[in-house]
């Protein structure tokens, strides 16, 4: 037998040629061709052309596998192999309707390619293991290699390259099966009772009869017994009714169902089987990132659900399949004695008969034994100082305080092998120093990070909140139900509001909103959330349910799908007569109330109401995007009882004229939404047919069949593979500084239908995506094109807490430096803010061409648009790489914390007595409402110091500056809701501190009054702060959560932004339970000041602040046993980074006014 025959045999048997000789080794895998055209040709000449130095002159063997790592011999395809030529698979040699798979090959080469072994045959390998089963005969094989030069092989290497010999399998064991009823069958795998018969019926998931269901005997080797007939009935003679005999029912698209024949003395048993829809594998928990030292052990776990459950798991390291025989993995991968080379990304692929799915990659960081787990040197980080703290040394209002990197690290772990570490460690603050900053008339203390180390991560909680409202009118869904995994977890309020704490280990938050008043369509949304903790706001747009129409079930019925005036329907639903069934499978013959609600993508305003996130899982397990041509929700009910009804073979006809991209005609499919996973699953293909309409007009339709069963939401979609990512960052001002980036913002991209030449309707949309910004912005997925720059366009917008953020202007002059993208690429992308042509339009979005970056243009290589393969480059792009920008107008308020803290990132919290928020995940926001009688809007400051705690007395917690908002009805009156630090326990939870709060208006102001209830409370709760200066107000903040009668507003929440937002809403409204975005200056006021015009020569109150940081402040407190001011007490820090300093996130209803700098 020739060498070619040896390789072919080994290939077709799915064997690798694994040499035991030390002088041979396998090359890397090569894949230079794809199975399009004539087939897949991985020929040696072509491989050498691309990789000349990586393949030897005379390969000894060839191994081929598909790109899914299936050996060529197991694919069932006809292939060819020759070490001198390579590997090839021809499409015309495959069975009808099937093409070759995509193959990769590798070659067995001598370790030293230049060395030629002289002589003839090498030694024989050992015999392969006998593959014969018990009682059978098979062939063992062995092989040898000719070491001569090619032109001498004929003379020196006579004889076969491979030999075979006959071998027998082991002896078969005797039959030990014993039957309590009946007798043992011939195969010795079941008991038979000739006098007994099983009669049964099979119904599908929707209750309809299931013809063609396979009935198999259960066991290690299932045997087909019969098939169900056209009515779903079946008959099985000979099964024993002993309570042990069983059979399995299988039906395409359904989960297998095992049935045990119950004990009975009757000659006939009647069984009814109701199948459930097969559930594709779904990732419940992705593997978690790990950090380990060299030589340690770690484990990655891949938790996957599905019905049937996944039976095969594969693990990949940096895209390469790991050897199962070496690592012995299943759903858990254990790596022992780690090496530096094992660092990288790991992910799993799980498969079952219902499909496959891939997990997200998890990063393994391997650190050397003597290497620092965290970089001890802090990263640069600037905070903005108050407007009266200009720094002459740096000529700016910024001060360097440093921050620690946001990353996992190696802590003190036990020896247990766990999917999730029992304790998580993060790089955090190890050392801080106090600095004094010189300001105008006073010194400002701040804490500067001087060292980083590995600390326990701060425990955080993720929250989603928002409102569920009608897409057309904004009407709230009052007291609606919110479901997760089929279980109700919450309800909406009277105004449609909701707040949900994301359960731990949630990877994909899928919520279904159900209106118990039946006004709105049940809506399933996939809501992005911040996995690091904190709250994210979502506005849920709901489609109003269409009024039902009455159908007669005994006649054909047609329902049109289309909602755009003066345009033809996109599609129609045709229901044949007698197609309606009750949920128990009984045919329904009465009238039907049919409500079909269609989301028409030809109207861009419907994009926000689209369900789920338009993704599906492909055959290889990858999550892939869809482009929609319309979604429709179906509700069929019994006219009298209101009982939901199912429908049998329903026909969907899509007008081919509505498909604007010809290549989509052959890939259009029907999909249904899985409400538990939020993923779309295939219901059927659409085929093209021509129909005559009238005498002359002939039209083309795409026609498909479907059943309307337990799922009621469907989609007309095509998979789209032209994909890119768009880089977006959000800032808290127009300064666009790295330290002023905002996290937790919901950025959204709406893919518009292609422009003329591709489409006839520029207002139609095809897909939308939302991503939460992190410390490095967000990468939004989008469709793009490399042939025509404007083939695809998109609108991009950003939302924070229900507030639409502003995009950078594009007119009257385009400023590439402000937009964040240089020319000429910016011109190619055609950036335009929504008010580009009409300044009356909102400024909260921009449009761009989605031009795929050209590999030949250097200016397009680094963003803001990245190819689909470069997601990691997009996520890790440096700040100076091109990106698009949004910003918030926060010129009317300013926050300063002595201990820096980023409210976007709860992980940045630090254990310190002067922390503004003393306890993470329990944030208490306090506001005092101040009325100002003045023709001008006035800046008001709260200066917050330790009041009664011996560790902090007289020391600064922070400063808040806020500009008052003018009353819309009273020109000379304004009001301000001013934040102050709440009194309460400090971080050690040992004793309370009543914060000493000074309220100081800017300018020539005089305190007129304090609300009597607040004054009475302060007098009755000693100690009492002295208020001799009528230009300001001083108090020891109350410990109790008071209310609008006191002019004090307090809210506690797990997210600082949420606590502030709610408290501000109540303060604006002047009530203890209401909310408003309009300042009501006469309601719920605590203090009143009257301010006149400031004289030119008069110094600002901000410039008159006392220099002393504690002594003078402490002297204003009347207290027995007063503690003298001393040095700062011992301070402990907890892991986390020094976050961005950010202002209050409440949106003002007035036009922003710039602060007056003093």
Brief characterization of the structure:
Helix content is 6%, strand content 38%.
| Number of strand elements | 76
How far the N terminus sits from the C terminus, by CA atoms, comes to 95 Å
User: DSSP strand (E) fraction?
Assistant: 35-45%
Distinct helical segment count: 10
The mean pLDDT is 82
What is the 3D form?
Answer: globular
Question: Which spans have pLDDT < 50 for at least 5 consecutive residues?
Answer: 1-21, 113-119, 756-762, 1094-1158
Instruction: Quickly give the structural class.
Output: mainly beta
Largest sheet: 7 strands, antiparallel
* Residues in helix, %: under 10%
Radius of gyration: 36 Å
Keywords: Cleavage on pair of basic residues, Disulfide bond, Extracellular matrix, Glycoprotein, Immunoglobulin domain, Secreted, Signal
Pfam family, one: TSP_1
Domain Ig-like: 281-365
Subcellular location: Secreted, Extracellular space, Extracellular matrix
Written account of the structure:
6% of the residues lie in helices and 38% in strands. Strands 38, 42, 43, 44, 46, 47 and 50 form a seven-stranded antiparallel sheet that branches. Residues 1-21, 113-119, 756-762 and 1094-1158 have low confidence and may be disordered. The longest helix is centred in the C-terminal third of the chain and has 14 residues, at 1056-1069. The chain is built from ten helices and 76 strands. It is mainly beta and 1158 residues long. The chain is globular and about 110 Å long. Residues 281-365 form the Ig-like domain. It is found in: Secreted, Extracellular space, Extracellular matrix.
């Amino acid at each position: 037998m020739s060498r070619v025959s040896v390789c072919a045999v080994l290939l077709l048997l799915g064997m690798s040629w694994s040499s035991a000789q030390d002088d041979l080794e396998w090359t890397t895998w090569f894949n230079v061709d794809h199975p399009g055209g004539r087939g897949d040709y991985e020929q040696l000449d072509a491989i050498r052309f691309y990789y000349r130095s990586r393949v030897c002159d005379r390969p000894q063997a060839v191994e081929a596998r598909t790109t899914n790592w299936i050996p060529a011999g197991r694919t069932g395809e006809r292939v060819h192999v020759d070490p001198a030529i390579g590997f090839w698979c021809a499409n015309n040699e495959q069975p009808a309707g099937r093409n070759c798979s995509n193959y990769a090959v590798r070659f067995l080469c001598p370790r030293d390619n230049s060395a030629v072994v002289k002589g003839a045959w090498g030694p024989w390998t050992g015999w392969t293991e006998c593959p014969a089963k018990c009682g059978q005969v098979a062939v063992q094989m062995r092989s040898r290699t000719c070491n001569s030069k090619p032109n001498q092989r004929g003379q020196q290497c006579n004889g076969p390259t491979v030999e075979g010999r006959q071998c027998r399998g082991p002896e078969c064991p005797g039959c030990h099966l014993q039957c309590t009823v009946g007798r043992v069958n011939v195969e010795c795998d079941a008991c038979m009772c000739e006098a007994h018969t099983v009669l049964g019926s099979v119904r599908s998931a929707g209750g309809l009869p299931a013809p063609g269901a396979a009935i198999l005997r259960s066991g290690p080797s299932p045997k087909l017994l019969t098939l169900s007939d056209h009515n779903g009935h079946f008959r099985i003679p000979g099964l024993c009714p002993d309570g042990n005999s069983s059979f399995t029912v299988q039906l395409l698209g359904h989960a297998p169902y095992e049935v045990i024949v119950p004990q009975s003395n009757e000659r006939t048993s009647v069984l009814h089987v109701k199948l459930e829809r097969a559930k594709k594998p779904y990732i419940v928990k992705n593997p978690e990132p790990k950090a380990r030292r060299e030589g340690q052990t770690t484990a990655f776990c891949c938790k996957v659900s599905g019905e049937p459950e996944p039976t095969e798991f594969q693990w990949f390291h940096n895209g390469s399949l790991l050897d199962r025989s070496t690592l012995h993995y299943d759903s858990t991968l254990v790596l022992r004695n780690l090496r530096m080379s094992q660092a990288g990304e790991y992910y799993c692929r799980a498969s079952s008969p219902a499909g496959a799915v891939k997990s997200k990659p998890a990063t393994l960081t391997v650190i050397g034994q003597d290497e620092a787990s965290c970089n001890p040197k802090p990263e640069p980080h600037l905070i903005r100082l108050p407007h009266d703290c200009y720094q002459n040394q740096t000529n700016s209002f910024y001060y360097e305080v440093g921050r620690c990197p946001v990353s996992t690290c190696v802590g003190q772990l036990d020896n247990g092998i766990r999917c999730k570490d029992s304790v998580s460690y993060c790089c955090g603050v190890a050392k801080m120093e106090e600095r004094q900053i010189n300001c105008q008339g006073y010194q400002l203390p701040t804490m500067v990070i001087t060292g980083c180390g590995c600390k326990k991560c701060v425990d955080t909680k993720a929250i989603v909140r928002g409102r569920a409202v009608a897409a057309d009118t904004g009407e709230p869904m009052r007291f609606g139900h919110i479901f997760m995994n089929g279980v109700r977890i919450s309800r909406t309020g009277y105004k449609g509001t909701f707040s949900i704490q994301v359960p731990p280990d949630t990877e994909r938050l899928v919520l279904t909103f159900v209106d118990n008043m039946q006004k709105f369509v049940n809506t399933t949304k996939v809501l992005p959330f911040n996995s690091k903790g904190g709250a994210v706001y979502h506005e849920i747009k709901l489609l109003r349910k269409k009024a039902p129409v009455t159908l007669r079930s005994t006649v054909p019925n047609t329902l049109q799908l289309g909602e755009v005036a003066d345009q033809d329907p996109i599609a129609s639903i045709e229901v044949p007569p007698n197609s309606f069934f009750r949920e128990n499978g009984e045919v329904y013959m009465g009238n039907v109330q049919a409500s079909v609600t269609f989301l028409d993508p030809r109207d861009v305003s419907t994009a926000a109401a689209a369900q789920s996130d338009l993704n599906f899982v492909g055959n290889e397990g990858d999550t892939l995007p869809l482009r929609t041509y319309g979604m429709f929700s179906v509700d069929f009910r019994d006219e009298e009882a209101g009982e939901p009804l199912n429908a049998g073979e329903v026909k969907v006809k899509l007008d081919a004229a509505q498909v604007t991209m010809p290549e989509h005609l052959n890939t259009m499919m029907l999909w249904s939404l899985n409400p538990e996973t939020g993923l779309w699953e295939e219901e059927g293909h659409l085929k093209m047919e021509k129909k005559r309409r009238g005498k002359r007009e002939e039209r083309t339709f795409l026609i498909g069949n479907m059943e309307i069963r337990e799922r009621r939401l469907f989609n007309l979609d095509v998979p789209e593979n032209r994909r890119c990512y768009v880089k977006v960052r959000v800032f808290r001002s127009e300064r666009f500084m790295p330290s002023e980036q905002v996290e937790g913002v919901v950025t959204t991209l709406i893919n518009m239908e292609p422009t003329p030449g591709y489409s006839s309707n520029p207002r139609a949309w095809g897909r939308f995506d939302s991503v939460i910004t992190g410390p490095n912005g967000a990468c939004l997925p989008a469709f793009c094109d490399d042939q025509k720059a404007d083939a695809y366009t998109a609108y991009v917008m950003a939302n924070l807490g229900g507030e639409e953020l502003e995009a950078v202007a594009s007119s009257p002059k385009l400023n590439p430096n402000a937009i964040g993208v240089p020319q000429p690429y910016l011109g190619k992308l055609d950036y335009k803010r929504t008010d580009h042509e009409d300044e009356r339009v909102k400024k909260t979005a921009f449009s761009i061409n989605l031009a795929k970056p050209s590999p030949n243009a250097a200016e397009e290589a680094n963003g803001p648009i990245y190819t689909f393969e470069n997601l990691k480059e997009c996520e890790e792009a440096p700040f100076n790489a091109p990106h698009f920008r949004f910003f918030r107008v926060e010129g009317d308020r300013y926050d300063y914390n002595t201990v820096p803290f980023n409210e976007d990132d709860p992980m940045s919290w630090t254990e310190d007595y002067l922390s503004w928020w003393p306890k993470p995940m329990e944030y208490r926001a306090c506001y005092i409402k101040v009325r100002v009688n003045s023709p001008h809007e006035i800046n008001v400051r709260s200066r917050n110091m330790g009041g009664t705690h011996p560790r902090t007395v007289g020391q600064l917690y922070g400063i808040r500056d806020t500009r008052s908002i003018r009353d819309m009805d009273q020109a000379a009156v304004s009001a301000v809701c001013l934040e102050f630090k709440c009194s309460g326990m400090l971080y050690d939870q040992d004793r309370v501190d009543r914060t000493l709060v000074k309220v100081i208006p800017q300018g020539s102001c005089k305190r007129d009054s304090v609300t009597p209830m607040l004054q009475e409370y302060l007098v009755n709760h000693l100690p009492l702060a002295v208020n001799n200066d009528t230009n300001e107000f001083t108090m020891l903040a109350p410990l109790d959560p008071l209310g609008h009668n006191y002019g004090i507003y307090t809210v506690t929440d797990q997210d600082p932004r949420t606590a502030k937002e709610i408290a501000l809403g109540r303060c604006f409204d002047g009530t203890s339970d209401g909310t408003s975005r309009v300042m009501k200056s006469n309601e719920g006021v605590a203090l009143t000041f009257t301010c006149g015009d400031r004289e030119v020569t008069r110094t600002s109150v901000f410039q008159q602040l006392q220099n002393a940081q504690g002594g003078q402040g402490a002297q204003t407190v009347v207290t027995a046993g007063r503690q003298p001011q001393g040095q700062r007490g011992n301070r402990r820090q907890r892991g986390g980074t020094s976050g961005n300093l950010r202002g209050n996130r409440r949106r003002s209803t007035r036009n922003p006014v710039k602060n007056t700098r003093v």
